[in-house]
Amino acid sequence: MTYLLDEHRIEQSWKELLKPEFSKPYWQTLKAYLKQRSSEHEVYPTEEDLFSAFSLTPFDQVRAVIVGQDPYHSGQAHGLSFSVLEGHKIPPSLKNIYKAIHQQIGPVEHKSGDLTAWAEQGILMLNAVLTVEKGNAAAHQKQGWENFTDKVIELLNEKAEPIVFLLWGAYAKEKGKIIDKTKHCVLESVHPSPFSARLGFFDNEHFTKLNAFLEKNGSKPVTF
Fold first, then answer.
1. Phi, psi (rounded to 5 degrees) for 44
2. Per DSSP, what are the bridge partners of residue 93?
3. Helix pair angle (25-38, 145-157), 10° resolution
4. Whose CA is closest to 91, among 69, 109, 114?
5. To 10 degrees, the CA torsion angle through 182, 171, 77, 117?
6. Closest CA to 6 of 34, 26, 25
7. What pLDDT score does 28 carry?
8. What is the Cα–Cα distance from 172 to 154, expressed in whole angstroms?
9. Which of 100, 104, 106 lies closest to 192 in space, CA to CA?
10. Pair 191, 169: CB distance under 8 Å
11. Counting Cβ atoms within 10 Å, is residue 174 exposed (0-12), middle (13-18) or buried (19+)?
């Protein structure tokens, strides 16, 4: 099935802010690339889920951002970083995220890997690259998505109210270089992957720090 990159699917507040991007050469190149690749390969997430992070967390509702790299490539991606559709096995990185929450906040039961509830509470679950091909991790890196999500982070950095950025791993830290740390709360640590989580992820206190920052700035804590 041909994958049509349709900017009209983006939530209205985001669409207005990102409108200048849609006429740039990289966006047109990305559209053509996705159309061509999807004629030969299965692309995830579905077109319906592609911009779900933006739909669930409109611009004025963003209180925090969790930056991921690219979607899962086995059919469980649905447009939110680290999240998987209901009914799919919880991936190792998300298991470690849940373990950190358990250690930092207390016992919390997580029956599913669907993080929609986080997005609905104001956490933008942003992947740096929004599409991938079946069975081929990072297949769509360096095709234009990075330009688009850099702009998203730039817009968030310009928000008047301070927000929390959670940057896990070298890739996310690099992505967050433009963030004004004098205005926003930037929390950095190793990635929750099984390869690195034991090097400091579990005791980084990011979840308690996030809620403490929100409360300090007159905002409700997130229920994880």
1. -120, 155
2. none
3. 130
4. 114
5. -20
6. 34
7. 97
8. 14
9. 100
10. yes
11. exposed
Could you tell me the two tokens for 81? Answer: 């970083």
* Residue whose entry in the numeric block shows the structure tokens 């692309």: 43
Right CATH for 7-216 from 3.60.15.10, 3.40.470.10, 3.40.50.720, 1.20.1250.20? 3.40.470.10
SS3 state of residue 149:
helix
* Domain locations in the chain as residue ranges: 7-216
Catalytic residue ranges: 70
Which regions in the chain score pLDDT beneath 70? Answer: none
Of the candidates 148, 7, 136, 141, the residue with the CA atom closest to the CA atom of residue 75: 136
Phi, psi of 117 (to 5 degrees): -60, -35
Global confidence as pTM: 0.97
Question: What local confidence, expressed as pLDDT, does residue 4 receive?
Answer: 87
SS3 40: coil
Mark residue 106 as left, alpha or beta (left: phi above 0; alpha: psi -120 to 50; beta: remaining): left
Q: How far apart are CA 178 and CA 78, in angstroms?
A: 27
DSSP run (H or E) holding 37: helix 25-38
